[in-house]
UniProtKB/TrEMBL annotation, chain A:
Entry-linked SUPFAM superfamilies: MetI-like
PROSITE patterns, per the entry: ABC_TM1
Similarity comment: Belongs to the binding-protein-dependent transport system permease family.
Cellular localization per UniProt: Cell inner membrane; Cell membrane
Name of the protein described by the UniProt record: 2-aminoethylphosphonate transport system permease protein
Source organism (scientific name): Kribbella sandramycini
Phylogenetic lineage: Bacteria, Bacillati, Actinomycetota, Actinomycetes, Propionibacteriales
GO cellular component: plasma membrane
PANTHER family found in the cross-reference section: INNER MEMBRANE ABC TRANSPORTER PERMEASE PROTEIN YDCV
InterPro entries per the UniProt record, alphabetical: MetI-like, MetI-like_sf
Keywords of this entry: Cell inner membrane, Cell membrane, Membrane, Transmembrane, Transmembrane helix, Transport
GO annotation, biological process: transmembrane transport
Signal sequence region: none
Record-annotated membrane-spanning stretches: 12-37, 67-90, 102-122, 134-156, 189-212, 232-253
Domain ABC transmembrane type-1 residue range list: 65-254
Automatic annotation (TrEMBL), chain B:
Domain ABC transmembrane type-1 intervals: 39-234
SUPFAM superfamilies: MetI-like (SSF161098)
Keywords (A to Z) from UniProt: Cell inner membrane, Cell membrane, Membrane, Transmembrane, Transmembrane helix, Transport
Organism for this UniProt entry: Kribbella sandramycini
Name of the protein this chain belongs to: 2-aminoethylphosphonate ABC transporter permease subunit
Membrane topology category: Multi-pass membrane protein
TrEMBL record, chain C:
SUPFAM superfamilies assigned: MOP-like, P-loop containing nucleoside triphosphate hydrolases
ABC transporter domain boundaries: 3-234
One Gene Ontology term, aspect cellular component: ATP-binding cassette (ABC) transporter complex
Name recorded for this polypeptide: ABC-type quaternary amine transporter
Organism: Kribbella sandramycini
Amino acid sequence: MLVWTKPGKALTWLVFGLVFGILVIAPFAVVIAAAFAGSWNGVLPSGPTTAHLQEALSGDRLASLSVSLQTAFLGGLLAVVVGTWSAIAAHNASPARFADALHHLPIAVPSVVVGLGLLVAFSRQPFLLNGTKWIVVIAHLVLMVAFSYGAVAAALQRVDPSYAEVAASLGASPSRVLWQVRLPLLRPAIASAAGLSVALSMGEVGATIMVYPASWRTLPVSIFALTDRGQTFTAAAEAVVLLTATVLVVTLLDRLRGRPQT
Amino acid sequence: MPPVLLIGLLVIYPLVLVAVESVPAWGDVLGSAEFRDALVRTVQIAVCSTIGCLVVGTFLAVVISFVPFPGARVVASLVDTMLALPSFLVALAFTFIYGTAGILRTGGFLTTPWAVVLAEITFYTPFVMRPLLAAMSRLPRAQLDVAASLGAGPWRVLRQVVLPEARPALLAGGSLTLLLTLNEFGIVLFLGAKGTTTLPMLVHTKGIVMFDYPAACAIAVVQIVLSLGLYAVLRKALGGRRARLD
Amino acid sequence: MTVQLDDVTVHFGRTCALESCTLTVAAGETVALLGPSGSGKSTALKAVAGFVRPSSGRIRLDGQDVTELPPAKRGIGVVVQQYALFPHLRVEDNVAFGLRAARRPKGEVTRRVAEMLGLVGMTSYARRFPRELSGGQQQRVAIARALAIRPKVLLLDEPLAALDAQLRADLLIELQNLRREVPTLAIIYVTHDQSEALALADRIAVMRDARLIDLAPTTTLYQTPPSAFTASFLGNANLLPIKSSNNEVTVAGHVIPGVQPISGKELLCIRPHAVRLGAGGVPGRVTGVQWRGASYQLTCEVADVLVRVDLAADGAVPAVGADVQLVLPSEACSLVSR
């Protein structure tokens, strides 16, 4: 198509392999390798061990995983509900641009700023939430809501309105149309938004680090604390735990998507 | 519209309070060298990272699309997956690669802004690749074939046939990356270099480490103006199409 | 320039898209590659252009092996089905693309572009963008662009397939004129439409299942098709099973006078317009009548086989269910193998 000669192709692929391998793949491979390494003083890690992983999965640290999972499910899934609801409401109302901008605002500014805002707003009356887990959950909800809103709003544009019209013409009440026609049609979009929300929530660090109380420390915060203290191998092991948990949860949620309907 | 009101409360109300809270600190913060340095650093890092992402992302996307190899589809789906991973993983990996006891033992490199730039290029290149891959898959293969039959070499085909068609995608991916790199926090936090304080980092330091809320809020306001200004430009640049951050 | 495919085989992964194709097209000659979709005709054309690499066999231009040469070095004009005009370039820049790639002097580029646009009658559209043109106009520009580089070989891949019937007829005439304007051009014309092949080609190569099955001058192929597939694909011929004995050929027990049996050929091929109704023919029953404006087409059942018969619209037309006798004139009959 573009490069026709064999040596030309070979050279292109070689450069591609180098760039992609070194720049994109290597960092992730290195974290995984470090999680199982006793020490890393040369080019390659040495002393293979599962000690770091065991530590990452022991008592106190396991609590972080539990906190992360709870936050991701609470915050992420609340975001899906609110985002879907908003998108449907905004689709019917006229000032959709305002709702669009409102929902995208939190991901257009740094997450640290979102965290600071929540910290300032919920450390005082009338909403005193600082020091509870709910401020963390709210932070995740606010940050993830854009993805559900965006995905559902885009899906609503694509879905043929005649389905809902036909259902209504058959005598279905508006709520019946919503639950039995519109939401099922949106299911693939909602499911993929849920997967993305949970995955991003599991890895969220900027807003969380601004608002988390000592009793509600997520995995990324715990990984940062380890890195900051120089315990990088344990940090790598926790990162592997984080990645594994994320992949498992996202795979599970992907099942909900069901077969694409034609 | 209860959900919209809820989000309004959770998004607008805090930001308004941030703006109110920031008022007393404006003079101090804007005049400080610390703030000006961080502002300049933030923009420098974001611009360098974005240029890097555009160059690397374009190259990778062109090879996947037009010099395909067995497994190219797997690579493309890998790129999609990476969008959902946390950015601090890259910074964590860098401590093993470039750290004092790591693979390359480049010692001081890790604490320079260039380490942040390299980490951001690693993490954000997929954000450039995704719209590019989509745009390139829409370009009819026959156009490349015909261009070649008319005597054009690979460079000419790339410059005169592929890039003109990929320009909107480049613009979209580039401005999104610029926005996200301006806002990036995880990588800077984890690399923790003293010399590379960016605005989000400064918000964190002032707010959490020094409990100076007004100063943190003032910096946050500057950052909001910067990000939203760019976001508005981004939406304009995409010609009425929604700026898809998601 | 002579184009030669010498035992060319093309594989895409495990599927074989073209098998042992051998074909020579002389300077000034037009050869049509005719076949249904997936028969390998486009693959053969792409192999000549250099877009796909043969897994074995050689491609030669004037005897010179170009198999390893990238398309940019072959100097072959290519026109594809969807035209592939560069959407961001104006018509004149599309036509100039190849000349600029060859770094021709500016004056020459301008002159040649004007000449080419004149040739295809698109001079007044030079400043337009492709999206502002109709399908037929885009196709003309694509042809001008391919001819601008003065190719010795022109490859046309289903150039009319995306156009409606009237435009197709108009462009067919223009392509015939083009052949006269550039008399030394070797043209390979890929199509699934027999009427295009009949109108343009000196010779027709019939393709089926990745193979070239029949190759002959156009009139020969039409009048005496060598195979049942070619007979039905080219001209929609009726194929009737025959019994041969004692120097006689019978269809449904009825002797066809003047037709001699040939061993191994078990089908009688006759075009719908050559069949006549009259006394002493093969008995059959009318099962369908379609009016086609200038003619009627009858479908008649003859011993479990449906036979199509074209009748002039001015004569009497039997009704559905009527018993008729089909006369098969020997000069219009040929025998083919199954």
